[in-house]
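Interim report, section 4.2 (structural modelling).
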Amino acid sequence: MSISQSVRKALEASSWVRRMFELGLEMKKQFGDDQVFDLSLGNPVLEPPKEFHQELRRLAEAPIPGMHRYMPNAGIKETRMAVASRLARETGLSFTENEIIMASGAGGALNVIFKTILNPGEEVLVPAPFFWEYIAYAGNHGGSVRAIPTGKDFQLDLGVIEEEVTSATRAIIINSPNNPTGVVYSPEMLKSLGALLSKLSEKLNTLIYLISDEPYARIIFDGLEYPYVYPFYSPTIVATSFSKDLSLAGERIGYIAVHPDFNGKLELIEGLTYSTRVLGFVNAPAMMQRAVQASIDLNVDVGWYQTQRDRLCRSLEDMGYQFVHPQGAFYLFPKAPIADDVAFAQELISHRVLVTPGVGFGGPGHFRISYSVEERVLEGALHGLSLAARAHGLPG
Amino acid sequence: MSISQSVRKALEASSWVRRMFELGLEMKKQFGDDQVFDLSLGNPVLEPPKEFHQELRRLAEAPIPGMHRYMPNAGIKETRMAVASRLARETGLSFTENEIIMASGAGGALNVIFKTILNPGEEVLVPAPFFWEYIAYAGNHGGSVRAIPTGKDFQLDLGVIEEEVTSATRAIIINSPNNPTGVVYSPEMLKSLGALLSKLSEKLNTLIYLISDEPYARIIFDGLEYPYVYPFYSPTIVATSFSKDLSLAGERIGYIAVHPDFNGKLELIEGLTYSTRVLGFVNAPAMMQRAVQASIDLNVDVGWYQTQRDRLCRSLEDMGYQFVHPQGAFYLFPKAPIADDVAFAQELISHRVLVTPGVGFGGPGHFRISYSVEERVLEGALHGLSLAARAHGLPG
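Predicted structure of the assembly:
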C-alpha cells in the first residue's frame, strides 16, 4: 500500500465529493463552462484592494535587503504590531505583538493550534453544521472533533453545550460568521457562552479553550459591528486569515491571536511558535506579511457581498425555500425540499447548478450555496433552483 | 497545563538551544551586533536574482484576475509544468505536471510526505549526522526517525543500511548536499543504494520509500553536476524548495516530485494532495508559485558560496581543524578539538563566535559552521576560531 491506512480511509470517505465534482466537470464539458452555475466553492471572487497591489509593487521595485529570508517563526515584528494594534483598538484589550503569531491562513492556524493543545484522545466540540475540515485538522494531531446540535436558527444551544462538555473536552470551536450558515453570534450569546465555559472549567477542574475561527469576521452585513469573543472568556485563541477580507485565499496569510489576559499565555505562545516551526510552516509567507501590514485597515467591498445576499435571499424566499437569513460570510444554507440533500444536489446538477450537500457540513437535509460568484453565475443558478423547487411542490 | 504533553516535552528537550541562543543575544548586547560573529544560521544571505523581482513587479503592476485565489491543492498547472519540464530535461525521465505537487518549502513538503505514507509505529531511517527537524516531522504523524551511522567521510554505509532496515522501515531519507556536512553523494553511491533498497524491498516483501530532501541541490561546487537519485530507484519521493537556489527561504515555496515510473504513484499523489489540503497548507503561496515559474532556470551566484567555502576551508585547515571537504550546501562540519561539542561551542561564544554543536545533528564531537554569512562575519569569526584552536593545542 503506497499510502497510510488513515489517509486511504480519508480518501475513501470523501469519494462522494469527488463523484459530485466529476459530475460537475462532465456538465461543464457537455454544456460549456458558461452554462454551468457553480455555487459550491468558498473562493473569494473579488480582487484585493488596489492599495494592496500598490504595496506589492513598492516592495518589488525596491526590495528590502533580506526581506525573503527566514525570520522568527512567529513572524515579522512590525506586521504583528499592526495586527495587535488593530485588535487593541477594536477590543479595548491590551494586545501586543507578543500575542500574535502569523500563520499560513486560518487552516494553517488551526493545525498549529490543535497540534499545540491536544493530547491523544482529547476532543474538540463543534456546534453543527460546521466546516468539515475541522475533523481532519483535529485528527492530524491525535484528537477528535465531536459535533453537537445547535438550537433555533443555528444559534448556540447552551443547554446542549453544558450537557456535552466532559473532562475529555479540550476546546470548543466556534465560527462566526458561520460557514455554512452565515449566522453571526451576538455579544449576548458570546457572553453567556463565556460564563458557561468558566463555570464548566471550574466544575470539571480543567482548562477548556474557546477557539474562534473567524476568517469571515469582516464580511458582515446590515451595519453590524463584529462581535468579538475576547471580552467574555480569557482562555480564548483566535484563528483567522486575510483570505476573505483582502481576497488573498491562495496566498496563505493569516494569524493566531491569544487573549492577552489568559494566564497560561506564555507557555501557549511558545508552544504555538514551536508548532508553527515543526509542522513545516516555519513562518507565514514573508512578502505577504509585509503586504498585509500595509493593508491592515482595508477591506474588499463588503457591500457587494451584501447585494449578492439580498438578491439571492429575495429570490429563494419567492421560490419557497426555507432558510435562516445570514448576516455574514458569503453562504446560505437552505433546507432541501426533500430529506436527502445529496439526491437534491444531484437534481440541481441536472439543472446545471452546483451546490454542496449539507451532509458535508454535518447538516443533512440542507444544502450550501456560496454566493461569492459573479452576478451572471448567480442569475443563471436561480433558474435551476427555481425548476428544482417546482419539482417538489414549492412555488419555484 | 496550557499545552499538550508532547509539545511541552519537545520544548524542554530543546532548552539547551535556547540557552545558547540567549548567550549569543547577551554577547550581542554586550559587544554590539557587529562584534558577534554568528555562524549558526542556515539562512541564505544572498538576494534573489533580479529577474525574480522583475517578475514580482510585473505581477503587481498587472495583476492577473483571480491570481490570489484558492487553486487546486497541488498548485498552479503552469508552474508544475515548468518544474516537470526542468526535471525531465535534467533526468531524462518522463516527468509531467501530474508528478509535481507545489509545497510550502521543503519542511512543508516533508510533513506532507510523512503524513501521507506513515502508519503508526513505522520508522524512517536517516544517516547521521542529519537535520534534526526530521525527528519532529516524523513524530507529528505518528512515525519516528531512527538515526544510523554513516561511513568514512560521512558517506552512506550500505552495510549498515542493510543491517538496519526492518519490516517497520517505511522509508530512508537522504539529504545531499548534506546539512550539516556539505557532503554530496556520488551517482555510484546512489546507484548502489537503489540496488540495495530494491533487494531489501523484495526480501522483506515491503515498500521502502527513498525520500530525497534536496533543497541544496543547486548549491554545488567544483563543476559538479547534481547527482539525482531518480535514475536508481523508482519508489522515490523528492522534497525540495526554492529557499536556497533563489534565496526565498521566508516565502515558503518548494515542491514534491514523485518518480514518474513508480507504480503506486497515482494513489501516492492523491494522498500527497489530500495531506497538503488537510494539514492546512491548502496550496503553496499563489503569487510565489508564479514568480518562481518565471525563474525556474535561475540560480543565485553559487560561485560566491564556493569562494566562501574555499576561504573558510583554507583557514580552518591552517588552524589544524579536521573536517570533510564539502562539495555543496553552505555548511562545514569540523571535528571539535575536544570531545564535548556543546562545551566547545560555549568556548567559541566567549570568543564571540556562534556555531551549532554537532549533538544538534546527531553528530556529537563536531560543530556546524554556516558560511552563508557576509564576508566580514566570516573574517571576524576566523579570529575566534583560531583562538579556540590554540587553546586546545592546535596551530590556530
